[in-house]
Amino acid sequence: MSFNIVVNQNDIVQNGLNSTLVYNFPNSVTFKNHQIALINANLYYAWQNINDTTLQNNKFSYTWTNGTTTTTYQVVIPPGIYEITDINYFLEFTMIENRTFLIDDQGLNVYYIQIQTNPTAYAIEITTYPVPTSLPVNWTTPSSFAGFPTTTYNPIVTIFPNFNDIVGFPANFQTSENLSIGTELNYLSTVAPQVQPNSSLYLSISNIDNRFGIPSSIIYTIVPQVNFNALISEVPPQFSYCKLIAGTYNELRIQLLGLNYAPIDMLDPNMSFMFAIRNVDEDLSGFKTAMQGGKA
Fold first, then answer.
1. At the topology level of CATH, where does 2-47+198-295 sit?
2. How many CA atoms lie within 13 A of 183 on its CB side?
3. In the prediction, which pLDDT does 57 show?
4. Beta-strand relationship, 231-234 and 109-110
5. Burial 40-53 (b: 16+ CB within 10 A, else e)
6. Measured between alpha carbons, how far apart are the two ends of the chain, in Å?
7. Which residue of 11, 83, 131, 252 shows the fewest CB atoms closer than 10 Å?
8. Nearest-angstrom CA–CA distance, 108 and 111
9. Rounded distance, CA 105 to CA 102, Å?
10. Where are the beta strands (DSSP E) in 119-177?
11. Separation CA 264–CA 161 (nearest Å)
């Protein structure tokens, strides 16, 4: 005999992450030789790829020189879901806040750093441009402009640890100042960028008896086949039953884990999971009875 249980947003543990759910049985349940399997899962592709808590990958920096004084500005990205174009937009926003840009004769902002994808190379490309020592003809400066250098240089971009995985550069990588040369510089990432550090999720359930698994609680992997913010509807092609540790239960604890096995930070709590629990002894007894009846 088997039965199904449904776990949804009403079962979420209120710890701010929306990735731990506890299903409380109406009464205590004793499991002797029972197994559990995922029937379906519905959740939104809404877990962050950049934040300052679980991932700690939200910072890098750049320099700007006024006269001979160099100032380093940190780019601190708010928690969220970002593509590389979004990261570049936030870099530009930060440069506007710091008044480290110019305005050309068409009234367009000119930025001296750019981060973009290079699809041909399957890489992220950082480009820095030489900052002039004086204002070009018909250009203007923003109010409270950060100032011109005494010698042409390219801003230095420093890639902090953890953020380096997003863009595919080594930790603490720095671009060149390119002092007095006056040319743009291009840098390609050296490893495949991991724009989404958690490209899939592990579905974990407490009290799973899996002597070969590390961790032993994982019963399924959810791989999104949709865009950010879209609904993931997961239906396993066949049930993969996992044995439950024998004992008496008041609850089951379900967690969504990242690739580092830490609870994921889910932005959207709207989710539901259906599980099947079966008694192997009863199923086997029924099978034997059917076989014996067939022989008679």
1. Jelly Rolls (2.60.120)
2. 3
3. 96
4. unpaired
5. ebebbbbbbbbbee
6. 24
7. 83
8. 10
9. 10
10. 123-128, 157-159
11. 20
Backbone angles phi, psi at 11, to 5 degrees: -100, 5
Cα angle 117, 128, 120 (rounded to 5 degrees) comes to 25
Residues contacting residue 77 through CB under 8 Å, at least 6 positions apart? 50, 58, 59, 87, 90
- Per-residue pLDDT tens over the stretch 22-40: 999 999 999 999 999 999 9
Name the residue type at position 101.
F
Residue 20 — φ and ψ, nearest 5°? -120, 125
228 to 83, 201, 225, 236, 247: CA distances (angstroms): 10, 14, 10, 21, 40
φ and ψ at residue 70, rounded to 5 degrees: -100, 130
Show the low-confidence residues of the chain (pLDDT under 50). Answer: 285-292, 294-296
Amino acid at 200: S
Domain-wise residue ranges, the chain = 2-47+198-295, 59-188
Structure tokens at 267: 């932005």
